[in-house]
DNA sequence: GTCCAGGCATCTA
DNA sequence: TAGATGCATGGA
């Protein structure tokens, strides 16, 4: 396969970022990654640390989508110093929080309840394949807009393997359409107000809301608490906190980049199966 | 066959 | 406010 334009990408690991459970549609083929930044196709690879090679899409778009402007060195300075957190950092160095479209992010995480990452991918791909818009130069369709989902019936979504999540996704789409609400227009809201708006949608509780705050609205202090983060916390603190309480504690404790800390801990625990001693 | 997964909505005390 | 339970599906 022919090469493309080269660009600098310091402190960035493309594979780890794409495989860290943020997006669920990336395809690797012959060493090239096919990604959709919303409706914009990106085809790229990382021939060596510190650089990217682009076959489709602009370097500007890649910098934006993969948040290459986040000050990763400064962010690492805020990481906890315990050995488990250090191992998570070293094991996933170069992982960045992707800037996702809000609806696509919310919809995929609404379907994530009690599902493994591989399953979320299956559902996301099925929804894109059946109901999404084709994009020229892409391997997968764009995620269908709320209007498209809202017009479906629950059986059509269950046929994508969603199970009980079908009603949640349908409810969220219909609520947004009914209220004429565009998630992208909420970007200027303060985090607390934004969280409240998100949690008012069917299928969106504290965990999914924090995923959307972190992965779509760039609230880098938001901490999604899933089963892995819960296990890590129990192993470290040896006492029980509710998930929302744990999220608030982590944001206070780890500061403006608490969401980054969370993502490294999550990815480390999930991929190695190891917990703090 | 059994267990578990990037939870949420609902009910009960 | 806190804790318990049902909910569907697919991979390990």
What does this structure look like?
The radius of gyration is 18 Å and the shape is globular. It is of the alpha+beta class and 277 residues long. The termini are far apart. Helix 4 crosses helix 14 (258-272), helix 5 (102-110) packs antiparallel against helix 11 and helix 10 (191-199) crosses helix 11. The protein contains 14 helices and five strands. The mean pLDDT is 96. A five-stranded antiparallel beta sheet has the order 1-5-4-3-2, with helices on one face. Helices cover 48% and strands 10% of the residues. It binds a DNA duplex (13 and 12 nucleotides) through helix 6, helix 9, helix 11 and helix 12.
Write the layout of secondary structure elements.
Blueprint (H helix, E strand, L loop, with lengths): L4 E5 L4 H5 L8 E3 L2 E6 L2 E6 L4 E7 L2 H7 L6 H6 L5 H9 L10 H9 L6 H15 L14 H5 L3 H5 L6 H14 L12 H9 L6 H10 L11 H11 L5 H12 L3 H15 L5
Antiparallel strand pairs: 1-5, 2-3, 3-4, 4-5
Helix pairs in contact: 4-14, 5-11, 10-11, 13-14
The structure holds a DNA duplex (13 and 12 nucleotides).
Task: For this entry, give a set of tags.
single chain, 277 residues, alpha+beta, five-stranded antiparallel β-sheet, 5 strands, 10% strand, globular, DNA-binding
Brief digest:
By secondary structure, the chain is of the alpha+beta class. Helix content is 48%, strand content 10%.
């Amino acid at each position: 396969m022919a090469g493309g334009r080269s660009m600098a990408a310091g402190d960035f690991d493309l594979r780890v970022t794409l495989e860290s459970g943020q997006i669920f549609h990336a395809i690797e083929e012959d060493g090239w990654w096919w990604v959709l930044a919303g409706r914009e196709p990106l085809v790229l690879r990382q021939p060596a640390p510190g650089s990217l090679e682009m076959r489709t899409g602009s370097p500007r778009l890649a910098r934006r989508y993969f948040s290459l402007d986040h000050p990763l060195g400064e962010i690492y300075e805020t990481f906890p110093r315990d050995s488990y957190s250090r191992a998570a950092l070293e094991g996933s160095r170069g992982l960045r929080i992707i800037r996702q479209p809000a609806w696509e992010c919310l919809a995929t995480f609404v379907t994530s309840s009690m599902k493994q990452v591989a399953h979320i991918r299956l559902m996301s791909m099925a929804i894109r394949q059946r109901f999404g818009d084709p994009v020229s130069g892409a391997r997968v369709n764009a995620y269908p807009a709320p209007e498209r989902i809202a017009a479906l019936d629950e059986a059509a979504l269950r046929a994508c393997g969603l199970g009980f999540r079908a009603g949640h996704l349908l409810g969220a789409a219909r609520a947004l359409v009914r209220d004429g609400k565009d998630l992208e227009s909420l970007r200027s809201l303060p985090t607390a107000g934004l969280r409240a708006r998100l949690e008012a949608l069917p299928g969106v509780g504290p965990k999914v809301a924090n995923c959307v705050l972190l992965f779509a609205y760039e609230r880098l202090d938001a901490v999604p608490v899933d089963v892995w983060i819960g296990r890590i916390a129990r192993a470290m603190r040896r006492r029980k906190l509710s998930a929302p309480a744990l999220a608030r504690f982590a944001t206070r404790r780890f500061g403006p980049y608490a969401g980054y800390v969370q993502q490294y801990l999550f990815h480390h625990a999930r991929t190695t199966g190891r917990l703090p001693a």
